[in-house]
Every structure is written in structure tokens, then in C-alpha cells.
Amino acid sequence: MSVHETLEELAQKVKANPQPIRSFAAVYHLVLSGREEGTYEIKFANDEATYRLGMTEQAGCTLELSADHFIKLVRGTLNPVAALVTGKLKIKGDMGLSLKLQTLLYAYQSPLEKEGS
């Protein structure tokens, strides 16, 4: 699965069930390395998630990791704490927002993905 497909799937899951992000607003930047190197922006606002390539707004939190590790993070197969400690993930900005993102990603994982965590 590609980064684009992963972000699209997340946006569709949020659209189908906006309850976990109700009244939540934040912008995240992803600085990805590896096979899909680039900078992405994810915005949670108005009970939806949108994403784009590039940065257009100021982010409260920036995550730096490889594209492969990002996909694993969204799917729940990468432990964010272990990734942070081992240097696979770097976080800049509001640590509270990074924890909120972890909670949101967990809420949108399928039951099978949660079993593997």
C-alpha cells in the first residue's frame, strides 16, 4: 500500500465515522523519506480529515519517518514509542498532538489490525 492510498483510506474511515475526531482540529506535517519521499499535510477539522502533498498551513506537530514506517504506524504495526526511542520516528512540536494522533489512528484501525498490535 502506498502513502497516498493509506491517507485516502484514513480520510474515508474518518468520513464514515467522524465521532473520534468530533470537535478536534489540528494540522500535522509528515516529512517522509524512502520510496515515497515528500512532505504531506494532514488536517483534522470540521469532523473530517483531509490531506495534501506539501505544506500550506502551520502544523502543531511534525512527524519525520520513512514512508514504510508511516504506513505501519497508521496500520498499527509500528509501536510509536519504540519507533521514537530507536530513532525511526522524530517528533517536532506539540507532543500532546502526537499522542492524540496515536489515539486517533488506533480508533480507525480495523479489528484485525488491532489484534496484531
Query: What is the average per-residue confidence, as pLDDT, rounded to a whole number?
Result: 92
Amino- and carboxy-terminal Cα gap: 18 Å
Radius of gyration, rounded?
13 Å
Helix percent reads 40-55%
**Total of helices:** 5
Beta-strand percent range: 25-35%
Main beta sheet: strand number and arrangement?
5 strands, mixed
Uncertain spans: none
Structural class comes to alpha+beta
Sequence of secondary-structure elements: HEEEEHHEHH
Order of strands across the main sheet: 3-2-1-4-5
Number of DSSP strands? 5
What general form does the structure show?
Answer: globular
Overview of the structural elements:
The chain has 117 residues and is α+β, with helices and mostly antiparallel strands. Helix content is 41%, strand content 27%. It has 5 helices and 5 strands; from the N terminus they run H-E-E-E-E-H-H-E-H-H. The protein has helices at residues 3-16, 67-75, 80-85, 95-107, 111-116, and strands at residues 26-33, 38-45, 48-53, 61-66, 90-93. A 5-stranded mixed beta sheet has the order 3-2-1-4-5. The longest helix has 14 residues, at 3-16. The protein is globular and about 35 Å long. The two termini are 18 Å apart. The relative contact order is 0.18.
